[in-house]
Amino acid sequence: xxxxxxxxxxxxxxGGMARRHRxxxxxxxxxxxxVDELVREIRGALPxxxxxxxxxxxxxxRRVEYLAKLFVDLVEHxxxxxxxxxxxxxxxxRVEGHAGRTLDSLHAAFRxxxxxxWRRIARVGRRRGLSTEDVSWLAxxxxxxxxxxxxxxxxxxxxxxxxxxDRDRRRRLLHLVLRRPSVSPFVIDxxxxxxxxxVPDQCALVALDGGRYLPRAPALGPDxxxxxxxxxxxxxxxxxVTTERIQRLCLPFRGTHLAIGPTVALAEAASSLRWxxxxxxxxxxxxxxxxxxxxxxxxxxxxxxxxxPGLLRQVARRRLAPFARFPVKQRSxxxxxxxxxxxxxxxxxxxxxxxxxxxxxxRYRMRQIETAFGAGLRDPDVRFEIESALRxxxxxxxxxxx
Length: 402
Description:
This is PucR C-terminal helix-turn-helix domain-containing protein. With about 400 residues, the protein is mainly alpha-helical. The chain is built from 17 helices and 6 strands.
């Protein structure tokens, strides 16, 4: 793609600058419709591109737009566009290598692009009355361009290819990091050096819904450890995890629920995964919102509160027992009142506003509650347990008499 090593960049017999500017000016108005045609032909002919979801379809279109514009830029200014072109094409190959795919589909897309591009050059030539020399020169530039695309992407692919042995080594490394009791850091460092993985100070574990289809070898980046084959698939991301990283992570797992655990020291990776799996379970049960990616840091109180359902039931049974003396229809109303009153720190007016009732109603109900609960409502520890039990009922959307 560089001026000194590419036919596109070379000064061919008919490649004077005036001619370059003139031909590039003829081709630029064709780019929008050409991109439409290229995307349509590629997706129609190649199964790998037919299955693309919306997000990956957008990425395909952007790549096609870039390469089509790049060809015209190289026609007009071979030297200024050459270096960026080489880097981009190598990057395309590295993506395929990291993803564990072959270059067959990418190179087939290049060949389709060549056919479509040649048809468009011939059409423009007839419409604009180009000379045979002009059309021949553009054809030379196009096929040299395609040769460079294949060569550079192959270079990038070889740099980025991840073998099955590499993936197995990284999978073992992930399980070593998660093992309890923990293994020696020296063992982890030794295997990490073999796997080419930089050991981070912090990490966040990602739990994935194992019941959904997961890609065999998605492009995750060299700093990610993953096991997507086990019954409880997971990944390790070096921390801290940014919003941009989360957005990129969603692309290969479209249609799958992910939960990202807290960012912790590497030695605490198993705890991060435990919380991520807890969050995924609460999503499945309808307790947490049904969104593609659940970030544990946004739901700490709920995760903590529901961490031990058995113990929570014991606390609720013990601390909410006084409600049993009221009629069934009255229990939920009184429980809601007590919860609002505790949240308002005993302020009847604020509790009434939360419940959309008159303050006198809150005071009347609280007299009934205080009679039933007795001195326990004045004990800080008891009040904490009562509020925790009521908060859990509220989160679970379960009534007091359930």
